[in-house]
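step=encode ok
step=design start
structure_in=
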């Protein structure tokens, strides 16, 4: 079985069966290319059609979400939940509410989630869901009515031992609260069916901070391997949502100077260092726009257009907004400005061409599956606390998160080295995640 033949054959099937889902094709291709050496070494995986089964979700649910807006007008959105793999635990993955959501986005996210979750060392399978609903500009009551309608269908497919959703773009504490309330009402059970809950009703300390903190812990290991750390480094972080905010906080704590952040309209540069309290107030409390930051800080400038952020010279880049935000041109700009490390906070923020540039030009590159696994890992810790009906302290959860990010890093570097791709954490993450899931699938028979 020739390498390229195998990749082409699998991709041929994936393209034919999932037309028009370009993000899903992109995510699958990367994994298939990474694991072909593993399949060659283990012909039993090929005979059992492990990869062919992995690319086909166990279950895909699409549903109508009707709701009434504040003007009394009926709105119709589309809801999704793709339950991709339960090989190593209940389906687990966030819900995204964003107008760009369609089946292909949810499938790319769900597919990546299988391998990410396997890397966390916790027993969780892979899934993802969401809707093309746009929470931006909606009142709290509209968001509540939407969430209640969404859950009125979703509740029959999820459960604390079946499928445990969480947040993602457009789904934060407010949305999880409304979703949880409706689930509880419909099922008459108070269980850990969602993660990212409020601290008074089953949430875990550190879950809010986890993805950003975990990202910084992961990049710390990348920097250590290059004999350096965060102190005095200039950092650019795209986005200004959950991941970006807490990555900024931890990077600043470790002595870095975060100089730029963005939203989908544009980006700010503050060479004196971003004042995070201002960003947190604008984004978390007022739900405003990042441009408002410059009204309060004379040292900062705002530029329209989100893409320009990658032209800001930096030592470390942490893309934490959305998929495919760093293309080849942006990658070239980062290399030119002598950026030494890129850690992906968002899911699939770098295009394949951009990744190739980073790897070829010696930029340390931490792929999303590994680098942003801290969020879902802490969700698994939330599930654990819910099952035990107790709460760990902030320090306890943070210690476990750090330990998990170390384990994720070690698995990636270990697998990369074992398969002759030293320093290539993309290949390392894909292989380590794949092996764990593949072995479980082999043990469980053709299901
Ligand atoms: P939030 O909704 O909290 O924030 C998203 C941020 O990214 C906002 O600043 C948003 O700007 C910006 N953004 C969104 N879409 C675009 C776009 N098309 N172009 C430019 N900017 C955009 O989401 P999160 O911080 O939770 O998620 C960010 C990324 O991290 C996503 O890729 C998500 O999948 C990933 N992730 C999140 C985890 C979590 O625990 N939350 C876990 C692992 C990964 P605006 O306000 O203008 O929309």
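sequence_out=
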């Amino acid at each position: 079985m020739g390498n390229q033949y195998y990749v082409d054959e699998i991709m041929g099937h994936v393209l034919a069966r999932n037309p028009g889902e370009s993000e899903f094709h992109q995510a699958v291709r990367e994994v298939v290319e990474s694991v072909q050496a593993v399949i060659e070494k283990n012909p039993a995986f090929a005979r059992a059609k492990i990869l062919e089964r992995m690319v086909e979700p166990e279950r895909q649910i699409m549903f109508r979400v009707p709701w009434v807006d504040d003007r009394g007008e009926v709105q119709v959105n589309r809801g999704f939940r793709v339950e991709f793999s339960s090989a190593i635990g209940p389906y687990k993955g966030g819900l995204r509410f964003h107008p760009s959501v369609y089946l292909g986005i949810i499938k790319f996210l769900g597919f990546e989630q299988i391998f990410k979750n396997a890397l966390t060392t916790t027993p969780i399978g892979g899934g993802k869901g969401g809707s093309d609903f746009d929470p931006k500009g909606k009142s709290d009551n509209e968001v509540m009515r939407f969430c209640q309608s969404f859950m009125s269908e979703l509740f029959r497919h999820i459960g604390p031992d079946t499928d445990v959703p969480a947040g993602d773009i457009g789904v934060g504490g407010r949305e999880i609260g409304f979703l949880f309330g409706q689930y509880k009402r419909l099922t008459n059970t108070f269980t850990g069916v969602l993660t990212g809950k409020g601290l008074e009703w089953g949430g875990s300390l550190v879950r809010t901070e986890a993805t950003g903190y975990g990202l910084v812990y992961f990049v710390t290991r990348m920097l250590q391997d290059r004999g350096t750390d965060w102190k005095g480094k200039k950092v650019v972080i795209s986005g200004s949502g959950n991941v970006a905010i807490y990555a900024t906080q931890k990077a600043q704590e470790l002595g870095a100077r975060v100089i730029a952040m963005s939203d989908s309209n544009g980006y700010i540069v503050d060479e004196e260092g971003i004042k995070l309290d201002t960003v947190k107030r604008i984004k978390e409390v007022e739900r405003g726009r990042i441009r408002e930051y410059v009204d309060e800080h004379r040292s900062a400038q705002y530029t329209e257009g989100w893409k320009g952020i990658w032209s800001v010279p930096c030592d470390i880049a942490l893309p934490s907004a959305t998929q495919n935000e760093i293309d080849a041109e942006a990658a070239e700009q980062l290399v030119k400005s002598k950026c030494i490390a890129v850690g992906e906070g968002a899911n699939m923020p770098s295009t394949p061409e951009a990744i190739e540039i980073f790897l070829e030009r010696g930029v340390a590159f931490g792929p999303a599956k590994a680098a942003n696994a801290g969020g879902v890992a802490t969700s698994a810790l939330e599930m654990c606390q819910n099952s035990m009906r107790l709460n760990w302290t902030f320090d306890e959860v943070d210690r476990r998160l750090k330990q998990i990010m170390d384990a994720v890093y070690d698995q990636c570097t270990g697998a990369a080295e074992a398969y002759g791709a030293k320093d290539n954490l993309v290949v390392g993450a894909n292989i380590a995640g794949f092996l764990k899931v593949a072995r479980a699938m082999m043990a469980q028979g053709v299901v």
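step=design ok
step=annotate ok -> The longest helix spans residues 394-418.
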